[in-house]
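Q: Given only this backbone (229 positions), what sequence would you predict?
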């Protein structure tokens, strides 16, 4: 497409005017952005107390070196604390590293340091209740014996468990155990399915004794085999 010199004479002022308008808008936007940044910084600084680094204070030191084999994002970058023993001008400090195990150059730029914050005025709560008057919430919420459940009207209390045997098989191949149970107030024991028993503490104690007895029998058998000629 060929544009005649006459057409250019009409288009050029329009283009220059549009370009000038774009520059004006862009300048205004940038100025508003700078004002917003300054306002946000001023608002933030109003609520922040300065932590000045000076001689005698404790500081953390930023070290961006990471040991080989460690992930950088999981490594600790702030090390210390170290004590500032001397200020070097307005932009550096000399640190005390004796006995710390760190082998670093003692003079560090202030941009690599941040003070250790101390909170001497942090509120504390003093307990005025004696130990005997304090409530143990765990004890208050738990039943007296979490092993034992209260008996229903048609249930009998187990006195002791005297034996165990294999019982019925489930459709999935699992074998239920049956326990030989002595009941309180009755002389004759009975074999009961483990699913029908409501005496967790007695079952636990019986299985603990059985495990100890099996371990002892295995040890005795091993000794007898070792003594055979």
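A: Predicted residues:
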């Amino acid at each position: 497409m060929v544009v005649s010199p006459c057409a250019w004479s009409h288009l050029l002022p329009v283009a220059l005017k549009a370009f000038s308008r774009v520059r004006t808008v862009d300048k205004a936007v940038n100025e508003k952005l700078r004002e917003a940044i300054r306002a946000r910084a001023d608002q933030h600084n109003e609520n922040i107390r300065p932590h000045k680094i000076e001689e005698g204070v404790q500081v953390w030191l930023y070290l961006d070196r990471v040991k080989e084999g460690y992930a950088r994002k999981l490594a600790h970058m702030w090390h210390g604390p170290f004590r500032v023993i001397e200020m070097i001008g307005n932009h550096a400090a000399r640190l005390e590293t004796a006995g710390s195990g760190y082998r670093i150059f003692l003079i560090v730029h202030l941009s690599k340091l941040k003070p250790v914050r101390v909170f001497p005025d942090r509120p504390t709560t003093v307990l005025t209740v004696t130990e005997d008057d304090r409530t143990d919430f765990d004890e208050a919420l738990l039943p007296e014996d979490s092993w034992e459940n209260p008996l229903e009207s048609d249930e009998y209390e187990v006195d002791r468990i005297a034996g165990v045997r294999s019982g019925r098989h489930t459709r999935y191949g699992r074998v239920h155990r049956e326990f030989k149970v002595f009941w309180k107030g009755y002389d004759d024991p009975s074999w009961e399915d483990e699913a029908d028993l409501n005496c967790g503490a007695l079952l636990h104690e019986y299985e603990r004794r059985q495990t100890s007895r099996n371990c002892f029998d295995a040890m005795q058998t091993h000794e007898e085999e070792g003594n055979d000629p």
